[in-house]
Automatic annotation (TrEMBL), chain A:
<dbReference type="GO" id="GO:0051301">
    <property type="term" value="P:cell division"/>
</dbReference>
<keyword id="KW-0132">Cell division</keyword>
<dbReference type="InterPro" id="IPR005527">
    <property type="entry name" value="MinE"/>
</dbReference>
<dbReference type="GO" id="GO:0042802">
    <property type="term" value="F:identical protein binding"/>
</dbReference>
<protein>
    <recommendedName>
        <fullName>Cell division topological specificity factor</fullName>
    </recommendedName>
</protein>
<keyword id="KW-0131">Cell cycle</keyword>
<dbReference type="Pfam" id="PF03776">
    <property type="entry name" value="MinE"/>
</dbReference>
<dbReference type="GO" id="GO:0032955">
    <property type="term" value="P:regulation of division septum assembly"/>
</dbReference>
<dbReference type="InterPro" id="IPR036707">
    <property type="entry name" value="MinE_sf"/>
</dbReference>
<comment type="function">
    <text>Prevents the cell division inhibition by proteins MinC and MinD at internal division sites while permitting inhibition at polar sites. This ensures cell division at the proper site by restricting the formation of a division septum at the midpoint of the long axis of the cell.</text>
</comment>
<comment type="similarity">
    <text>Belongs to the MinE family.</text>
</comment>
């Protein structure tokens, strides 16, 4: 590192920010890609049903399908309710 | 038996056509009879990059429709022996390429050629899907930049699920990462994703790193594949890439900043 760099490098470098963001989004998209085609629609439908009763934002629901062994797949539904709506 | 290699990326403007031209020319220079097929229907550009735009008479879609035969349509490269170009059509009909039609043409080319390079259009629509469907190998062209890396990852997903090899349960497409427009100076400053970063995220084998280079624009300006500019860094990096594609072990070059003067080392820059 040169002298000037020493005084310059106060900000976090943007390349590592890019890498972190990519790792997260790519992992997320791969998971979705490997799931069945109906999963996104299922997620939307479940969200609609819940929204009939409680107003929650779209990112507060997560649906995932996990393969456990050869015989069993587990559908996991994770909904975070806002504090004041309980 | 011909080997079919798709040059693909998802994102536009990352260097697919430049790379297709360089790879096709490089394979022909190495003595393999090679054809480069432009799959970008409607937006033909390979002819310009190869400098044969005024010699296009018939195109890919004419051959599929039986309006011309391959012999009439293929353009023989004037500089490089063993090299031919199959230009794309400029029709606006996106569905002009049918899977049966493409298969028929590729089968016919396979009788005659060692390598068929498929220059894919950007995006994930039918043209891009058609370009990758019959591939044996894929060169995934990626820039060290977030949107390009993300799109490459999507294309890698398609290679392993939407190709002929995937559908028929054959051995998967061999995927190669080609990193283009690489700027070692910006990487050292922490402003650009490094080779290692991109390799880690995409997790496919690295076939080449092409430095950001003035030579690429000069080459396209004059309609001459950059690999023929053997003095240039980009030209040499493509030559290395071809050797790796043909199974040779070649060390990677142009990954670090050229040595600096004493003054620069002290004050940076």
């Amino acid at each position: 590192m040169s002298l000037l760099d020493y005084f310059r490098s106060t900000k976090k470098n943007t390349a590592s920010t890019a890498k972190e963001r990519l790792q997260i989004i790519v992992a997320h998209e791969r998971k979705r890609r490997n799931g069945p085609d109906y999963l996104p629609q299922l997620e939307r439908d479940i969200l609609e049903v819940i929204r009939k009763y409680v107003d929650i934002p779209a990112d507060q629901i997560a649906v995932s399908l996990e393969q456990r062994g050869d015989q069993i797949s587990v559908l996991e539904l994770n909904v975070t309710f806002p504090d004041d709506k309980r | 038996m011909a080997k079919i290699i798709v040059v693909t990326s998802g994102k536009g403007g990352v260097g697919k056509t430049t790379s297709s031209a360089a790879i096709g020319t490089g394979l022909a220079l190495a003595g393999h009879k090679t054809v480069i097929v432009d799959f970008d229907i409607g937006l033909r550009n390979l002819d310009l990059i190869m400098g044969c735009e005024r010699r296009v008479v018939y195109d890919f879609v004419n051959v599929i429709n039986g309006e011309a035969n391959l012999k009439q349509t293929l353009i023989k490269d004037k500089r490089t022996d063993n090299l031919f170009i199959l230009p794309a059509s400029q029709t606006r009909d996106k569905d002009a390429l049918t899977r049966e039609g493409v298969e028929k043409v590729l089968n016919e080319l396979a009788k005659d050629f060692d390598f068929i390079i498929c220059d894919s259009p950007a995006g994930i629509e039918s043209g891009a899907m058609m370009a990758l469907y019959f591939a044996d190998e894929a060169v995934v062209v990626t820039n060290p930049e977030v949107s390009s890396v993300r799109d490459s990852d999507r294309i890698i997903g398609m290679l392993s699920s939407k190709s002929r090899r995937a559908e028929q349960g054959l051995e998967g497409i061999k995927e190669h990462l080609l990193l283009t427009r690489y700027n070692p100076e910006r990487v050292e400053k922490g402003e650009m994703l490094s080779v290692e970063d991109v390799k880690e995220i995409l997790a496919i084998e690295l076939i080449g790193v092409i430095p950001e280079s003035q030579a690429v624009l000069n080459a396209s300006n004059s309609g001459q594949p950059v690999i023929l500019d053997t003095e240039s860094d980009a030209g040499q990096a493509y030559l290395d890439t071809i050797k790796r594609l043909l199974g040779e072990q070649v060390p990677f070059r142009f990954l670090t900043v050229e040595k600096k003067s004493f003054i620069k080392r002290i004050f940076g820059g």
